[in-house]
Design goal:
Layout: H1 2-9, H2 15-36, H3 38-46, H4 53-99, H5 107-152, H6 154-177, H7 179-201, H8 203-208, H9 219-266, H10 272-313, E1 332-341, E2 344-354, E3 359-363, H11 370-376, E4 385-390, E5 393-394, H12 400-405, E6 407-410, H13 421-426, H14 434-443, H15 447-451, H16 470-484, E7 488-492, H17 500-514, E8 518-522, H18 526-530, E9 534-539, E10 542-547, H19 549-555, H20 558-570
Parallel strand pairs: 3-8, 3-9, 6-7, 7-8
Antiparallel strand pairs: 1-2, 1-4, 4-5, 9-10
Helix pairs in contact: 2-4, 2-5, 3-4, 3-10, 4-5, 5-6, 5-7, 5-10, 6-9, 6-10, 7-9, 9-10, 14-16
Length: about 575
């Protein structure tokens, strides 16, 4: 596990851990020497010349003083190493997550990531702070004791040495018993955590429909809790035989030394005083090893946490070219693009062009792949076939930071960070001044939201923007895009949550972005679609029609049918049932 930890940390960060390990080894060796000094001390006290004990006692005091100094140094270094390790792991995990393709983030993986970034990192952080000391002591101190035993009686030392392979075999066997059960428990905990959060977030829906923890609304949570309980029970049941076996082997090792010493004493080859002293030393040999059994579960947990972190850090990042190119303009082009999720095809042979400085509306039925098109432009995923270009350059050959600096995105699902309205808008351009931020908010009609709130622009929006309505969150998101002022703007149902009055205001604000910019709008609002320079109708992962609104209506094809359906839907009204 120590080598695995050093490899995970890397050579640039492992110096504190190496220093701590060195200090712990010194501590363990000094502890073994102190135990070994009990032999001459007891021999002197039980022998014919008790006064000869003083040199050995002074030696023991000197070794003990050195041990205290080394112990203090290892303790201080251990906590420093733990803090450094936690900070380094969180930074590496953050960098890795930020570099992974968006397609990696499925619901199950997000739950596991939450567990990994909290509990798993804390488990690893506890290795230098709490686990390395007993771990090193459990192996180095007994080894030191056995080596010194050879100076007192090679036969008893040999008997102790012969028990070591059996102890190691049983230890590895007992550790392996619960490895798969530990993994199942970890997975169950991740699922349960997600279900608890889901149950809390869906309380309004569950209560409105008369569901609760005792009804069908909590069945998923109950099942997850039951699975976790069963997984924990399985860990306990599989771990007990290993613990019992290891304890028996350790006791058997001491028994072997005891029987050997007794035989030698009865045979006259070993005096009783030395036998008693060496038996005390043998007890010191087995005690640290026995403590390793208690550490078994904690060590397995830490090792599993190391494995999970290493697995995440080994996930392939979104590939980056070694020689990035600069796009020549800001038109967008798809050429024969194929793409799918987990083997399910979403786009097939899609070819389209968004000329620079124009507005393109992308329409089509739900599930046709419209949002996927918008997410392939900023390279949230890489295409399976074909190519996506910006300014004539494959987006895979553009530096990711440069690519994202040229794109503003307003998606249908808006997430706001737990800060003020001003701070959330400023995310569009962190270096912007307050007046610039407020101007972007005014254009997106966020100003009127701020004016009616007690703290105005400095009002906290809550976690995920929970203190604002859906339409208000959307306006803040649009204000971000306006503030960023990027040459390419992607709007996915950006005005879907707005009332007609605010939609018109936001449409006017978005009009400021059109001139000299490439604008892709995914919308179902008829006036938004009709205002586009070109309209693309996507169905079943293919572009089936394209042109202006008038041209497509004149063809009386699928777009005209789409428009007719939407027009009829606008006239729908709720009516009272006749008496």
């Amino acid at each position: 596990m120590i080598s695995q930890l050093l490899k995970l940390v890397g050579p640039e960060h492992n110096r504190p851990i190496r220093r701590m390990i060195a200090a712990l080894v010194v501590c363990a060796v000094l502890q073994g020497i102190a135990f070994a000094l009990l032999v001459p001390i007891l021999e002197a006290l039980l022998g014919s010349d008790p006064d000869s004990v003083w040199p050995w006692l002074w030696t023991l005091l000197g070794v003990s003083a050195l041990y205290c100094i080394a112990y203090y140094d290892s303790l201080r270094t251990g906590f420093d190493a733990g803090a450094t390790l936690s900070r380094m792991l969180h930074n590496r995990i953050g960098d890795q997550v930020a570099s992974l393709p968006l397609g990696w983030f499925g619901p199950e993986r997000v739950g596991r990531l939450g567990q990994l970034a909290t509990k798993s990192v804390m488990d690893v952080m506890g290795v230098p702070a709490h686990l390395l000391r007993p771990l090193v002591t459990s192996f180095v101190t007994p080894a030191t004791v056995v080596v010194i035993m050879y100076f007192f009686d090679w036969r008893l030392a040999l008997a102790a040495t012969l028990t070591v392979p059996l102890i190691v075999v049983v230890y590895r066997w007992s550790a392996g018993l619960t490895r798969s059960a530990d993994e199942a428990r970890y997975a169950a905990r991740a699922v349960t955590g997600g279900k608890v959060v889901e149950f809390a977030q869906l309380q309004p829906v569950l209560r409105v429909f008369g569901r609760n923890a005792e009804g069908s609304g909590g069945q998923g949570l109950d099942a997850a809790l039951e699975t976790q309980h069963e997984a924990s029970r399985r860990v306990l049941m599989t771990g007990v035989p290993g613990l019992v076996s290891f304890a028996l082997v350790v006791q058997a090792a001491f028994t072997v030394i005891l029987v050997t010493g007794t035989y030698l004493a009865l045979d006259g080859g070993l005096d009783v005083a030395k036998l008693l002293a060496i038996l005390v030393l043998a007890a010191r040999f087995t005690e640290p090893i026995a403590e390793a059994a208690v550490l078994g579960s904690t060590l397995r947990t830490a090792r599993a946490a190391l494995d999970r972190i290493a697995e995440l850090l080994a996930e392939p990042r979104l590939p980056q070219t070694a020689h990035p190119l600069t796009p020549r303009g800001h038109d967008i082009e798809f050429e024969d693009v194929d793409f799918g999720y987990d083997g399910s095809q979403v786009l097939s042979g899609v070819s389209l062009k968004l000329p620079e400085g124009t507005m393109t509306a992308l329409v089509g039925p739900s599930g046709s792949g419209k949002t996927t098109v918008s997410k392939l432009i900023p390279r949230f995923w890489d295409v399976d076939g074909g190519v996506v270009r910006m300014g004539g350059v494959d987006v895979r050959e553009i530096d990711p930071e440069v690519l994202m600096s040229k794109i503003s995105v307003v998606f249908q699902d808006v997430y706001l960070f737990e800060g003020t309205i001003l701070e959330n808008i400023r995310l569009g351009r962190p270096g912007a001044g307050d007046e610039e931020v407020r101007e972007a908010g005014r254009l997106a009609r966020v100003e009127e939201i701020a004016l009616r709130l007690p703290l105005g622009w400095d009002t906290k929006v809550g976690e995920g923007g929970a203190l604002l309505s859906g339409g208000e969150r959307q306006r803040v998101s649009i204000a971000r895009a306006i503030l960023k002022n990027a040459p390419v703007v992607l709007l996915d149902e950006a005005t879907a949550s707005l009332d007609p009055e605010n939609e018109r205001a936001v449409q006017e604000a978005l009009g400021h972005l059109t001139e000299g910019r490439t604008l892709l709008v995914i919308a179902h609002r008829l006036q938004t679609v009709a205002a586009a320079d070109q309209i693309l109708l996507l169905d079943d992962g293919r572009i089936v029609e394209h042109g202006t609104h008038d041209d497509l209506m004149a063809r009386e094809g699928r777009y005209a049918f789409f428009w007719a359906q939407r027009s009829r839907a606008r006239r729908w009204r709720l009516a009272a049932r006749p008496a």
